[in-house]
């Protein structure tokens, strides 16, 4: 049972990793161009998306 849960957690991490890397690269790029407003909004969107997904994962039925 632990193997299954670990596999699911690592799969979710593997799916999210490219998006995290893209957000990090975009933020650095905008800062390098002297734009500090766009990274702020990228962070707001990323945080809101994460909160929504965390809430959905908490409320979805599953093994507890």
Describe this structure in words.
This protein is mainly α. Helix content is 84%, strand content 0%. The protein contains two helices and no strands. Helix 1 (2-32) packs antiparallel against helix 2. It is elongated. It starts with a helix and ends in a 5-residue tail after the last helix. 0% of the residues are buried. The mean pLDDT is 88.
TL;DR?
The chain has helices spanning about 1-30, 35-60. The protein is an all-alpha fold. Helix 1 (about 1-30) packs antiparallel against helix 2.
Topology:
Layout: H1 2-32, H2 37-59
Features:
64 residues; mainly alpha
Q: Name the structural class.
A: mainly alpha
β-sheet strand percentage? under 5%
Q: What is the CA–CA distance across the termini? A: 12 Å
Q: Percentage of helical residues?
A: over 70%
- Give the overall shape, derived from the CA principal axes: elongated
Count of DSSP E strands? 0
Mean pLDDT: 88
Main sheet properties: none
